[in-house]
Design brief:
By secondary structure, the protein is α+β, with helices and mostly antiparallel strands. The chain has three domains: about 200 residues, Aldehyde Ferredoxin Oxidoreductase,  A, domain 1; about 190 residues, Aldehyde Ferredoxin Oxidoreductase Protein, subunit A, domain 2; about 190 residues, Aldehyde Ferredoxin Oxidoreductase Protein, subunit A, domain 3. Helix content is about 40%, strand content about 15%. Strand 10 and strand 11 form a beta hairpin. Helix 20 packs across helix 25 and helix 23 packs parallel to helix 27. It starts with 6 loop residues before the first strand and ends with a helix. Bound molecules: iron/sulfur cluster (SF4). Iron/sulfur cluster binds next to helix 21.
Amino acid sequence: MAGYWGKILHADLSGNSLADIPLDRDMCRDYIGGAGVAARLLLDRLDPERDPLDPQSPLFIMTGPLTGSRIIGAATRFTVAGVSPLTGIWGESSCGGSFGVQLKRNGWDGILITGRAPAPVYIELIEGRAAIRDAADLWGMDTVQVTDTLKARIKESEGKAASVLCAGPAGENLVKFACLMNGPHNAAGRCGFGAVLGSKNIKALAAWGGSKPAFADPDALNALRDELKEKIESNIAVSSMGAFGTAGGMDLGSMSGDVPIKNWTQGLWDEGIDKINGPTLADTILTRTAACFGCTVGCKRVVSVPDGPYAMEQGPGPEYEAAAEFGSMILVDNLAAISKINETCNRLGMDTISCGGTVAWLVEAMECGDITPEQTNGIKMAWGDADAVLQILDLMARRQGIGDILARGSRAAAAQLGVGAEYTVTVKGMEAPMHDPRAFWGMGLNYATGNRGACHVNTAGMYHEHGFCFFPKIGLDDEAPPHQTGGKAFLTAQTQDLGQLWNSMCLCHFPAIPWEEADYVNVLNHATGFGYDLDALMQAGRRTWYIKRGINNLLGVSREHDTLPPRLLAPLDDGATAGLEIDLRTMLDEWYALRGIDAQGRPGSEQLHELGLGDLAEKLHAQV
Ligand code: SF4
């Protein structure tokens, strides 16, 4: 099957067994790959009563049909998916690096992991041979240590430069926003899948493969790759990411009100933004840039801080999300400190977004007297204090003292401590990423209705609202005024469906900014030979969106969960969005009508049948 091997590996840790599961051709065509195929496979195995950290909870690590190709941004990307321990609903997390291509070159499209090993293990995949190996000596290591150790071990035993995907101490300790790391820069960050790996007693996976997947029309695929490369190189937004990283546009973002400041309460912080943005990083601590396998954009930063309290050897520089979470959100204007915090999160294996949101909540809770230093092991949190953050991170990852409560995320921490619920900023339990929806109201609707909670990467809407890309063939040819209610429901529904394609193709969003609709159709047809047209592709995106919504309905999601936290519904006093209030109710009503969502928040039965989701319709509508 062109673009796919037609099988995934099932590792059952409880049974210590490894076996192939075939992938059906029609399913690959209908769900494409990555998060789409994972959602389809999850629905077939979903037990709504099962805890996400139960050994039998399935965890998927999936590649896409372009993994292993030369398509920029899709050559290696992969998705980790399952039920999120942070939110209890559908979870997915996309990751770059090099693990995806090495996994696929083993001859599998992905891995399904179930069960729990009796003692710590890692899974080794070398040239199509899978093995479950003892990881007793790796347990407790940070993500850099385990990566270096496993790479050296496999180099010595197999002579191969394996790629390692691993959990840190946070994953071992079941921190609900623990991530997986592939190298120092690349995180499958969101949704807490590091904890799922830890719950299965798996420290890491290591892969090296030499089998290149076959594509339907490799010459056409390569020619299209070169065309797309030219589009990417001539696109200012993408080029800027190569030059200044993803924090390169922080000044512009701040001017439009997109950058959250002081736990979402402040609209202006110009003096601080200037000190932590991408150009300042390039002028101060940047040593070189880095890229995922096969990517010519190279948005990753490598930094070093030679001395001082935040000294760090050459390591990962903060991406935009981390720069905002540990910079503007808590008023830290020191790039060296932010880099140290970011590197610490990566080493401990914690998602910088949920961790940062939880830290900002804690700072505010202490600043306003809801929490005292007596409750935080004597650590005094304050706006602008990076040292206190570094201390609290370690407690979180090791679940010591207050860290044990914070390790559940801000929503659960506020509930457990009985304070500060009004200044948590989560949707469906997921801390919001660093794009303030008061600046772009479609993002507000998208957060409210996101299938994994507050999420900016389940959609192409952000780039359209920001004016970076237009999709005339799906009705999005005009600029979308940011502070407008009308039209946002259509924009959101269309770009959510398109966003499903990105995450099913395992395509990095940044190089995709200059892609036109025909590029999606052509690239997938050259890879798979499925003969899609644009309608069929958009329907695949829509089908994937609905199956995730249906999974969430089965897990308890209803209309009441489609909302924004009170803080985001209140206007700011200053900055670009001062006084502006999102009319979420109107946008939601239009979106429900467009999506065909009933009063209980479920997709209608007829609509599901039309999308080939009759089994989901029966499960959902038999519930009444
Ligand atoms: S743009 Fe950045 S994140 Fe995306 S593939 Fe390239 S290096 Fe990786």
